[in-house]
Right-handed parallel beta-helix repeat-containing protein
Amino acid sequence: MAQGTVQVTHTGTSRWRRRTGEYASLAAALEAAADGDVLTVAPGTYRENLVVQRSVTLRGPEGAQGSVRIAPVDGVPLTVRASAVIQDLHVEGQDAAAPAVLVEEGTPELLDLRVVTRSASGIEVRGSARPTVRRCTVDNPAGVGIAVLDGGGGVFEECEVVSAGQAGVAVRSGAHPRLERCRVHHAAGSGLTAMGEGSSLEAVGCEVYEVRGSGVQVTGRATAHLTDCDVHRTTGDGVTLDTDAVLTLADCRIHDIPENAVDLRSRSVLTLTRTTVRQFGRNGLSVWDPGTRVDANQCEIFDSTGDYPAVWISDGATAVLDSCRVHDVPDALFVLDRGSRADVVDSDLSQVRNTAVSVSDGATAQLDDCRIRDAATGAWFRDHGSGGTLNNCTLVGNRTGVIVTKGADPTIERCTVDSPSEAGVYVSAGGRGSFLDCRVTGSAGYGFHVIDGCRTTLRKCRTERCARGGYEFADGGPDTAYDSGPLVEDCTSDESGGLTPPSAPEPVVQTVSQSPGLLGSIPGQRSTEQEPLIAAAAPQEPARTSKAVLGELDALVGLDSVKREVRALTDMIEVGRRRQQAGLKAASVKRHLVFTGSPGTGKTTVARLYGEILASLGVLDKGHLVEVSRVDLVGEHIGSTAIRTQEAFQRAHGGVLFIDEAYALSPEDAGRDFGKEAIDTLVKLMEDQRDSVVVIVAGYTAEMERFLSVNPGVASRFSRTITFGDYAPEELLRIVEQQADEHEYRLAPGAAEALTKYFTAIPKGPAFGNGRTARQTFEAMVERHASRVAQVSDPSTDDLTLLYAEDLPELP
């Protein structure tokens, strides 16, 4: 497009100025124009470096937006040094060392500009300039989208940075812009960044997404205030604060973040009000270092996509959560390291897969009027120096309400633990703690379970409807100090639970020495004499022979190669045992196994039978199966993983430890992952306890091959890999026939053929469940059968038992 002419409408009061002139170049028109004049630029491409130094209006023709291109070969295409109005221009720059649009002075208005450039910055505001920038678009894949520097300011309304090679919007050196209803996306750096003392950024109603760095970054004593903003789909953290940064988020939404939703360090301060944080891959809030602080009010943190705590406070940092909700996360709140503190008031922590509140390494947590629901552990005070207070809190439906271990010493006051599935309160390994006016109701285990002679204080506590008993105290053995054990005053129980009779006599547990009358009427306390059992112990079923167990294995549908492998291994062990009995050397057989294959192929069933076979041969004491996965082994911080793994081994003592989806312990992108600690602990325990625990790791074939290849220490511990192939359609039919026979149903003529066709056609993708799919198909047929027969007024026996081809569900 050729260069056009520039029409200047002069607006001066003198008669000779009230006229219109045309100029062949923009430079000439600007030279001739005076304040208040209007320069209308004809369509075309202008290879000029424009400098606007008067308060004029420079605009493209009406109705032809983008038809005027300012595109010099180098330098700054457009420089503004006056309170001018610049409108409807397309600006292109090629100089990597200069901005495309530079605003240096005045209060100009930039309206409807499109900046498509490969410059140091798309729009740059400096010094005393205070522009108003409306509806402008910046596309700068080589540098910063919008830069406000050296004390500059201004207002950006409804602007969009569609790409940036660095930050989308950068505020530095004491600048202080305001963004309203702007969008920043596809930036190679941070979406919004403010850095340096005196720098500040205010954003209202803005959206930041699809950026490769952090969504918002505030560093080096800068401040920022975001209201009603969205930050999502970043590659890095959602929001990052560092080095005395100050940020306020009000009514904002941070979501779909693969890393930390919010990460702050080095004395930074964050205030969140009515802000939601969801779908984050690591921590929702990650708070580090002394002097760093988060204050959250009426916020919601939920729907984690990773295996990390939702709120992480460490290295002396502080967090305050007031009227907040944290839910659907692996762990809710982790406070660790001396000097770290969390204060939580009137908040809900729920749907937590592991621990709702974890306090360790000398940290402190204070919870007042909070509700903790549906967690594996409500609150866990883990080690020496760790403590704090739970005051007037309710813990409902957790596996264990409160755990205190390893010298931790919290104060729990006026709290209620309702319906725990294991224990209301569990204290062990030198844990202490004071429980004042607390109540445990509806426990499936004990109300208060204190072992190892822990010096716990219970005052005015009450238990109700605890299945195994309200209170259970056990000493720590002969090495326990004579004055150890709980201090109990004015505690009561409704005695409704009693003591569940064990299946075999339990060892005598010594009573903690107390002054007369100290325990009052607490039921279920053990004495130095064995108490009579409430009911006779149930007789133990005799162990099956290996032949009987192998018979059950042979009865399983399919799995021919698996059966051969197990029989060969069993034969090796049996012959080795006989050679030892004959005084001969027996070949050393590694009993640990790798099971590979798709879901539903019988891996867990075979593992259970394998344990029973080893028990029948005298290789294992019990042969029971303990099934775990990553979530049961991997803890939240260094040290806790080893404890969880050791506990799993202890539960499996004398039997089989079955680790499903074991490859999850070694993810391809490990990052800050504690799976390696679980693997290292496994390798050591598999050697130390090789005669008492058999380990079977299982998972998809390809993933398990990768797992073993990247962990040679683990691979060397296993004797062989057994592959479980997918079931053929005929084998799936046999499973359905077995299910039908077991539940007194029959397949009508033609139903077997229809099932075979169904299983042949069913998609065999990741959702295919093999034997599980066969069982689900049978259940679906039974449901459809019931719907059909329910309409028959007087059904016959055939009506009630026959499953027809039309009872098959639709293919998924």
User: Anything to note?
Assistant: The CA atoms of residues 17 and 747 lie 101 Å apart.
